[in-house]
Amino acid sequence: MGTVANRCATIAPSGIEIIVGLPHLARGALLARAIALQAPVLISANCLSRWRKADGWRDWTGWRTGTLASAADLASIDLDSAGYTMTVAYNGMPWSIDDYMALAASYPFRRVASADYCCEVQVAHDREEVRDRISRTIATNRECHARALDLGIRERFMPVLQGRTPDDYLRCLDKLDGLILPGTVVGIGSMCRRPIHGPEGLIAVVERLSRDFPIGARMHAFGVKGDALPYLAPFAHRVASIDSQAYGIAARQDAHRRGVRKTDFLVADHLERWYRQQCARTASPSRLLPEADEAVPPSPGPVDPWEDAITLARQQIRDLIESGDLDHDEITAGWVEAWAADLFNERREAA
Fold it and tell me: Fewer CB atoms inside 10 A, N or C side of the chain?
């Protein structure tokens, strides 16, 4: 099996690497299959977390780094900060940047993704929240990069861009320009629930970034489904890799349909089938989409003084977060309103 899998992994004329997202590193059928396939692997920091349940609440207590011994025979392993999962489950990261980067330095991961703030619509419900999360992502990238330098793992650090529109990602890229050197792989976040087509679709984002991407740097698109590969092929000179754990959903559906348990063996079979399918897709003919129309912003309505103060307060706070004068996790709704109240009163007194 290993020989066939290796040949499968190298028949990608588009050059886009397929990375398998693993939910855990426990010894068993799933890990063994990834090793046999010699597929590159990505794990979330959460799968290495140690938790303690007290008073009905789970408290994070550190890392289970001993589990990483199981990864020795993998072709490669990348580390992701679990931003989306932690936001949905815990409303934020339960560990600090120092905690996360200490984990990153504890094992020779091939790539270590920066901590970031995802911008999926399920998390960021409006434009202001998207802008807030982009600013926080800029700050966490800089903080993670500084820790990577301190820990001697700069060459493994993978900056991560966030946004909703193509211009959002471009702004994030501009702010992180000094962190991206030739040879750097840059993660593109908030992709897994994004359509391929449209002005805010996957291809629109990749195409826009491709025009201004630093020379020698390439992208990793997080959570991209395999049906996007033919559309990504024209950008293979810019897109280094994609990852997905979509096989896990297929395994769950299969188990439910057949009325059987979702065992590691069942999931491993789906992993192999999925991996081979994605490798085959990289050999499919490229497909081009017409250039996406620019999204048309809504016409501004009458300016409400209080809403205007809220907007200005959020922008000022974002500027301070990006400059490092405020921590990325300090901003709260109550703080924004208090800041806006000061601005509102200052304007009223000056009028």
Answer: C
Token pair recorded at residue 45: 């920091």
Q: CA–CA separation, 132 vs 66, rounded Å?
A: 36
CATH 3.20.20.105 fits 2-297, yes or no: yes
Write phi, then psi, for 62 (nearest 5 degrees): 140, -165
C-beta separation of 219 from 253 below 8 A: no
Per-residue pLDDT of the chain (351 residues; tens, 9 = 90+): 344 444 444 333 357 999 999 999 999 999 999 999 999 999 999 999 999 987 777 889 999 999 999 999 999 999 999 877 777 666 778 899 999 999 999 999 999 999 999 998 888 889 999 999 999 999 999 999 999 999 999 999 999 999 999 999 999 999 998 899 999 999 999 998 899 999 999 999 999 999 999 999 999 999 998 889 999 999 999 999 999 999 998 999 999 899 999 999 999 999 999 999 999 888 877 777 665 555 545 545 546 776 776 676 677 677 667 666 566 676 666 656 665 676 666 666 666
Burial 33-54 (b: 16+ CB within 10 A, else e): bbbbbbbbbbbbbbbbbeeeee
C-beta of residue 315 within 8 angstroms of C-beta of residue 331? no
Contact between 76 and 112 (Cβ < 8 Å): no
Select from 103, 81, 101 the least CA-distant residue to 92. Answer: 81
Report residue 99: phi and psi, to 5°: -60, -50
pTM: 0.84
End-to-end CA distance of the chain: 77
**Residue 294, number of CB atoms within 10 A of its CB:** 12
